[in-house]
Structure formats: structure tokens, C-alpha cells
Amino acid sequence: MATESPFAQLGLVEWQETFDSRCALADFQAFEANVTIQTGHMPGLKNAVPALDELEAALQPWGADREQENRCMQLLLADQGKRLLQLNALYGLHSAVINEAWISTTLPPSFQWIPALTTGWNQSAHTNAPRAGLWWNTEADAAESEAALNGAIDERGVPAASTHRAIAQLEKFQRRFPNDPHRVLVAYIKGMAFATRWTGRPGYDRQLDEWLALYKVISRLMVNTELPDHQLDWVDALSNWERVACDGKQSRINLIEQQGMPADVLSQFLPWWTGSQLPCSTLDSYEVALPPAYASLWKNEPVAQEVETPAATPSVTSFTEIDPAPYAAAYTCLLHEVKAGDTLWNISKRYPGTTPEWIAEINEITDYIRIGEVLCIPIQP
After folding, report:
1. Model's pTM, two decimal places?
2. What dotted CATH number matches 12-228?
3. For labeling, which of 47, 156, 169, 337 is most exposed (least CB within 10 Å)?
4. What CATH code would you report for 332-379?
5. ω before 130 within 30° of 0 (cis)?
């Protein structure tokens, strides 16, 4: 059963194109110019591999289709494992932020591979969904957590802030589905309404099946294979980049048209800047560093005239400085699979304290229910 989703996950072909494009962006190209990624040999398996966590165990049915799993493996291991090695190298750019964040959560570790499947570890990712940031955060989630999102600044472009908000969202879904980590993952990608109707088994949505199979393969390869830790390599590469500053305000149009700064480079290195003018106090709070070639273009930028711009909230640059948004769990989900003869009325009678209207609202039902759908039955704490 195919289902349209504004947050649709990528199929294998689309993911390959997205990831290869990510590897061509300026920050990774600058990294590769200084660090040699050993792509001439196939990564070997570790002698001892970690046990499956709860999410990986729940994803095992998506490995039953051997042909599909082989396609996923070939996608990553082609050219002596080139994409797997690139994926691992890009993970090194954000691993410190993610590892620090994961210390304070009970989420299974394999949830940390979501950015590999959605954005290719791209902090400047942006879609028409509208989602943005390293973790593909929604606008609604950003607004709920009071992130700066005002036309000039979009804090979803800050990796630490994006990671924090993703964990908060995943933990919210975990409270809804405490024993279904794969349903938590699907809720994050496809939305709560889809996740509650989803059967939780292969065969409901072909593209989702493909995406979950790729997720399963990536999560295992990232921990089962002998891959170098590139975190310190990124530290060394970034130490050669130059911190940029300004006086007054920076103008996007001047940087692009007068100084020759490519627009995509601005988006990649300042993914949180979405306006036309940037106050220097805001720039300083983000501590932006650019590779020397781009830093030289930036330093030649003339000071722009003062103009009225939307108020910009200085960014938080580390995970530990972010105050988590309060969240009170109003209910958890008891999952009910619709059988022949079920109606919202007789389902509500089986679960005291619920009403047909409430079940319809929670599951975003506007017409009728279908046999095989899985409904969230709200249970008060």
C-alpha cells in the first residue's frame, strides 16, 4: 500500500544522487584536499561486533528480502567501499556533537544514523517539505522548541541545535511507542499519523521498505566494519581554515555579486543564515571559519549600509548550552490493528476513557478506517 508523504524518504537511486552531491560540496572537498580517504581497499569486518540494539533488532525483517539487501550493500560497497568510507568520513565532522548528545538519552544508538539516510550528514540540507538542518528538522518542531526561525536566522542549520531537537522529537515518539523503536523511526520520517496506521511490517509501503532496508545495512556496516575515526582529521583540517569577522553588517548580495563568493558556499558554511543582511554580532556568535580561498573573498567584502532586518537571535554553538523545551506526555499509544467489522465507535468501547472523536483526531482520520490499519489508541498516563 503506497502512501504519499510530504516527508517522503529517499529510494536507493535518490539517496545515491543526494549523497554523491553532498560529497561534492565545498566543506567536504576542502577536507579531502587535506586528508586522504583510503578508498583503494574494501573495509574489513571487525573481529568482535556489537550486539544489535533495540532498533536494529526491530529492523531485521527488512533484511529478509535478500535481493533488496544486496542492492543496498552494492550501493555502499561499490568501488572498494567508496560510499561507505565517504559516509564514515562525513560522520567524523559531526560525531563529537552527536556522541555528546547521546550521553543524556536512552534512545538506542542506531538512531544516530538518521542524518546519513536523510541528509547525507549535510548541515545545510533544506527541502520544500519544509525540513532543514543536519537532522532534517521540521519547521513545526523548531517552532515548538522556540528555535530562532525568523527569516534571517534558521537555527536548524546549527548541528548541535539540530541534534538536540531531533533527540527531543524522537524521545516524544518513544513515549508514544515505548516498545516499537522502528515505529518511532518511521514517525520521525513520515509523521505521527502515518506511523500509527503503519502495520510495522514489510509490504505496506514499497519505498519505505527500501529505505528501512538501507537503514538496516548502514547501521550495521558503520559498527561492524573497520573504519577509521576521522574526528581528529576534521579538527586538523578546520585548524587550517580562517575565522571570519566583519564591521557593521554583511550583505549576501555583495558577497555573491561583488566579491565572487558562490551562493552554495555561503549556504554550506553558514547554513543558519537565511536572510539578506547579517549583523556582525550574530556572525561572531557562530564563530565561522572558511577555507583560505573563500576567507580571502569574505575579507574583501565592503561594509554594507545599515538596513532594517528581522531581529536575529544569536545562535547556541554547543549542545550543553541549549535549554531543552519542556514536554509533558499527555498520552501514550496502545496500538490497535483494524479488523473486519471494526468502527471507531465499537473500538472506543473496548478502551474505556476514549471516544470515537478522540481516536479520529489522534490518527488524523477524515473519512473511514481500513482493515489492516494500525491505530493509536490514546491511553492516559
Report:
1. 0.79
2. 1.10.530
3. 47
4. 3.10.350.10
5. yes
Angle at Cα 371 formed by Cα 377 and Cα 340, nearest 5°? 95
Residue 126's nearest CA partner among 89, 160, 162 is 162
Indicate the domain borders of the chain: 12-228, 241-307, 332-379
Question: Closest Cα to residue 312, out of 201, 175, 152, 157?
Answer: 152
- Digit-by-digit pLDDT tens for the chain (381 residues) are 333 333 446 789 999 999 999 999 999 999 998 888 876 677 888 888 889 999 999 999 999 999 999 999 999 999 889 999 999 999 999 999 999 999 999 999 999 999 999 999 999 998 766 889 999 998 887 777 666 777 788 999 999 999 999 999 999 999 999 999 999 999 999 999 999 999 999 999 999 999 999 999 999 999 999 999 999 999 999 999 999 988 778 899 999 998 999 999 999 999 999 899 998 888 999 899 999 999 999 987 444 443 333 444 333 333 333 344 333 345 677 888 888 888 887 888 788 778 877 788 777 787 778 887 888 887 765
Within 10 A of 110 (CB to CB), how many other CB atoms are there?
25
Question: Residue 61: what residue type?
Answer: P
Q: What angle do CA 154, 175, 187 make, to 5 degrees?
A: 55
Rounded CA-CA distance 164/102 in Å is 9
DSSP line for 129-147: SSEETTTTEEHHHHHHTT-
Cell of 24: 561534492
